[in-house]
Amino acid sequence: MRQRLIPVLLLVIVSSIYYATSAGLTSSNDGSHYALLRSMVDEGRFRIETYAHFAEGNDLAIRNDVIYSDRPPGTALMAVPFYWLGGILPGPFHDLPSRHDEGNPRLAYLLMFPALAGGAVIVIVYLILRSLGLSELVALTGSTALAFGTILWKYGGVLYSHAPSALLVIGSIALALKVIRDGRLRPLLALLLGFSLGMSVLVEYSNVLFVGIVLLYLAAMLRWRLVQRRGSWGALSLLGVGAAIPAAFFLYYNTVNFGGPFTTSYRYAINYPWAASFATTFDFPLWQGLKAMLWYGIDARDQPNQGLFLLMPITIVGLAGVWTYTRSRWKEAILVVGVFLLYLMLFSKHHTFSGFTFDGRYLTPFISLWFIPVSYAMARIFGMRTSAGKDVLLLLLYGLLFLSVRNMLAHIAFSYNYHLDLGLLARSASTPANWSYITGSIFVNWQNIPLLWGVEGSLGALIIGALAVWRRINPAPVPAPGSSG
Predict the structure, then answer these.
(1) Residue 397, by phi and psi: left (phi above 0), alpha (psi -120 to 50) or beta?
(2) Would you say residue 28 lies in a domain?
(3) What is the pTM (predicted TM-score) of this model?
(4) Series of mean pLDDT values for 10-residue runs along the chain (485 residues)
(5) Which alpha helices (H) appear in 414-448, and where do they start and end?
(6) How far apart are CA 75 and CA 17, in angstroms?
(7) Does residue 60 sit in helix, strand or coil?
(8) Which of 118, 153, 181, 284 could cysteine-pair with 163, CB 3.0–4.6 Å?
């Protein structure tokens, strides 16, 4: 019972905190996603002239004088059910201080989407860590550090593509690891894996490389076992069916809007002409970009970037866990660490790796992978015999974690559409007025948390009911009389 309760509590707690920091639509980026969503829901089309002002004249694509969002369509598509919910469920207790469309009650439900996606990432990482044999303490500490010590927190509160992309990436990784451990491709896993991989590209086009890596990895690890097992061809077909659903939408969306199945919105992006091709998008010197992604540097547009170790110091711990993870589970580490390092280098070459938010945000979907080695390093420290050395390492570990959490709070507070003004603080640091002002400037949506709990409770009831029906239709086999347990 406890093993089932912890993931549920993790999801509720993390998603609630993420949701509490949601400030509605905060910039041109999420405004562009929202414009596409509104066009699809309200007008049944992809062109966004009616709602183009949400993109602030920035994140737009124009072809033949028709205005489109320049964002991949997957985020808007996945968020549609939450926007629909806002039209049938009770209104919010407090309007979000949104930069766009303020007062629209549906925003309170729409912003549940990234919060739930981010919370689900944490749950999956926790379950992966437990499946690796790490203790409950290590799994909880590692997943909590990921939740509140990285920029996943910030992007779990805004309608950017990063939280849903992170969910699809870690979900695909978890399914791929399950396939490897089973030594076979089961039909349901195949269908889910195909759909997750396909949707990841629909949410973020750069994930196409990730899809290729996962498929090549599975083919290399399973080799002939995959085709020799009875029923494997059917499972492979389901893998293709799962991927074909989002792929079909991808091809259709590009064809009707941009003139070809593989011509994306980036070709017609009005402010990012370099995004039209791979060569001009990833044209920054690798070593210069790598320094910026890991610590600090300036991109091709002279925008500063807060690197991984500077903004999220807890990630430094992962350097001490890579070897332990690789030695313990080398087959899995090849995929997990390999994907993270590959995307670290890829985005180090990105033309604007800062993304104008100064935080290397493009790496957000893959940071969860790095927290497996981070957790292995934690396990080594926790497993040491009591000594002065262990005390020093624990002090260092929790110091890095607390510094990371502090950085995330500051990062959110000084982001778009958050209005913390240090000049309004009293000179005495710990006055009740100061604490009230600081927390109120960050947790701007805390009044609406009960709405999220209601949605989560309803979804939980539906899932429990569906599982009960499934078990009734497919009962567990009863052991024959006289057979051993």
Answers:
(1) alpha
(2) yes
(3) 0.94
(4) 84 97 95 98 96 94 96 97 95 94 95 98 97 96 97 97 98 96 88 97 96 94 63 80 96 96 94 84 93 93 92 97 94 96 96 87 96 97 93 96 96 92 83 90 96 93 82 66 51
(5) 432-442
(6) 21
(7) strand
(8) 118
Q: If DSSP codes are grouped into helix, strand and coil, which group holds residue 296?
A: strand
The residue segments making up the domain with residue 54 are 23-110
Burial of 394 from C-beta contacts in 10 A (0-12 / 13-18 / 19+)? middle
Contact criterion met (CB below 8 Å) for 280 and 336: no
Number of C-alpha atoms within 13 angstroms, CB side, residue 170?
31
What residues form DSSP beta bridges with 60? 69
Domains: count for the chain: 1
Partnered with residue 298 across adjacent β-strands are 304
In a domain, 343, yes or no: no
Burial pattern 246-275, b for ≥16 Cβ within 10 A else e, equals: bbebbeebbeebbeeeeebbbbbbeebebb
Q: Are strands 60-63 and 296-298 parallel, antiparallel or unpaired?
A: unpaired
In a domain, 99, yes or no: yes
Distance (Å, whole) CA 170 – CA 362: 15
